[in-house]
Amino acid sequence: MHEGKRYLQTEKGQPFFWLADTDWELFHRLDREEIATVITTRSQQGFNILQCVVLAEEDGLRQPNRHGDKPFKSDNPLEWDTTHGNNPTDQAQYDYWDHIDYTIQLAAKKGLYIALLPTWGDKVAHLWGVGPIIFTAENAGPYGQMLAKRFGKYRNIIWVLGGDRPAIYTGKDNKKYDDRPIWRAMAAGIREAENGNRHFMTYHISGDITQTTSQQLANEDWIEMNTMQSGHGSRETKIWEFIARDLATKPTKPTADLEPCYEDHPVNPWDGKWTRARGYFSDYDVRVRMYRSVFAGACGVTYGHHQIWQFLDTSRYKPVNIGDTIIGWRKALRSPGAFQVRFLKELMMSRPYFSRIPDPLLVVNNGNDWTNYITATRDYEGSYAFIHLPEATPVTLNMALLKGNRKKAWWFNPANGRKTKALVSNHTENSTFTPPAGGRDWVLIVDAEL
User: Fold this and answer.
1) 168: which residues sit within 8 A by CB, 6+ positions away?
2) Cβ contact 373:366 at 8 Å
3) What does the pLDDT look like over 139-193, one tens digit per residue?
4) Parallel, antiparallel, or unpaired for β 18-22 and 300-303?
5) Are the C-beta atoms of residues 431 and 425 closer than 8 Å to each other?
6) pLDDT tens, 374-414?
7) Residues 408, 401: Cα–Cα separation, whole Å
8) What is the mean pLDDT of the chain?
9) How far apart are CA 93 and CA 87, in angstroms?
10) Which CATH architecture is the domain 356-448 placed in?
11) Does residue 352 have a cis bond before it (omega within 30 degrees)?
12) Is omega for the bond preceding 251 within 30 degrees of 0, making it cis?
């Protein structure tokens, strides 16, 4: 974490922009060759993190992985089903945990981190899900120790506890639950067994956007980055407000949306009223939510495709909340949004990074809802600004917030990464810019000529 406590950096102090892909079932549902396809493709597309779960959501304890292995000898998280050797051509040697080793090692070779979730939250929380619940405050710590002893040697690990569940909630039995002792114990067990080889740690919370980690877990010192899940329930989410709330919460921590709307996910399929007219989240929907969260001050963002996280293959698995369109994970791997997200990372890395601040005052007479709200970010000294327009309509900026009397401006198309020729502006007060024809959403880049 950078000393300003809003952004991330590498061990050498270089800016690190969190650009993750959602691969929840990767260990569970893919074989070695398929995992190599995912890792190679995502690396080429510019991602730097894959979010994966050790104990997967879709019956991850009792349904064997693609190599026929389960994680435990029983449902006891302290009784791992391990074998001697790790030769992948010998099924008697290659076990569930060897498969995770292989994935982490291959990701490292391709320059990717694995955001490793020790378990999906249904193994802890008294809410929805296959489960079963197997963790307690007594066994979570030793399990964390076992994980860190096995995988803590890898430098490309990020620990992510939680797994789509709140820590404090009313259960499906209408009782009140507080699972913080379990998560604390697991985090402490990991830290104890890392032996100084410390890895970054955070928490993946559920899709109730009002309950981010900053609201439930603000004072947990093991959580080094606040997170939220803006989710797949609607297009109307005002993500910029929740990012701002996180950044205003003490103690100050970086924040990121670890599960925004998935590309090709049906919009709110859970109410039983979904139709094609309600539709799916498109690459545009995903793109706009991601730019809005980052320009509002997030330290990065996670992309997801609805048929990737579950690695949909109808010859093997039943689809989960698919609507009426089967794409399949191999085709989905090359969906438009997966190619577009790198442009966001590259844009953020193109200007001074740690001095960046969100600044809604840059935009004069802004909108106030998901259809027209414009997000803006700039260097705190005013040397540059990025302004994201969700629709191709004119925008008026308060140029007094930027340095100098002369500025250069470009239109940047987030769908293809292309920029227009520079415009020159000598305005020092309000100035209106009109985006070019041909794109739906645009980013205006303004640089002060110093």
Assistant:
1) 177, 178, 179, 180, 216
2) yes
3) 999 999 999 999 999 999 999 999 999 999 999 999 999 999 999 999 999 999 9
4) parallel
5) yes
6) 999 999 999 999 999 999 999 999 999 999 888 899 999 99
7) 15
8) 96
9) 6
10) Sandwich (2.60)
11) no
12) yes
Is pLDDT at 450 greater than 70 in this prediction? Answer: no
pLDDT above 70 covers what percent of the chain? Answer: 99
Helix axes 32-44, 96-109, angle to 10 degrees: 30
Nearest one of 208, 306, 305, 302 to 257, comparing CA atoms: 302
Helices 140-151 and 96-109, axial angle in degrees (round to 10): 50
CATH 3.20.20.80 maps onto the chain at 8-349
- Cα 165 to Cα 178: distance, rounded to the nearest angstrom: 11
Q: What's the whole-model pTM score?
A: 0.96
How far apart CA 377 and CA 362 sit, in angstroms, is 8
Overall average pLDDT of the 272-282 stretch: 95
What CATH architecture does domain 8-349 belong to?
Answer: Alpha-Beta Barrel (3.20)
The residue type of 334 is: R
| Beta carbons within 10 angstroms of residue 307's beta carbon | 25
Which residues have C-beta within 8 Å of that of residue 88, sequence separation ≥ 6?
A: 32, 67, 94, 98, 102
Query: What φ, ψ does residue 75 adopt, rounded to 5°?
Result: -90, 20
Q: Three-state SS for 103?
A: helix
Biggest CA pair distance of the chain: 72
H helices present in 283-335, as ranges: 283-295, 306-309, 329-332
In this structure, the number of other CB atoms found within 10 A of the CB of residue 91 comes to 12
Helices 239-248 & 283-295 angle (0-180, nearest 10) = 30
Q: Exposed, middle or buried: residue 172 (CB in 10 Å: 0-12, 13-18, 19+)?
A: exposed
CATH 2.60.40 residue ranges for the chain: 356-448
Tokens 């985006």 belong to which residue? 435
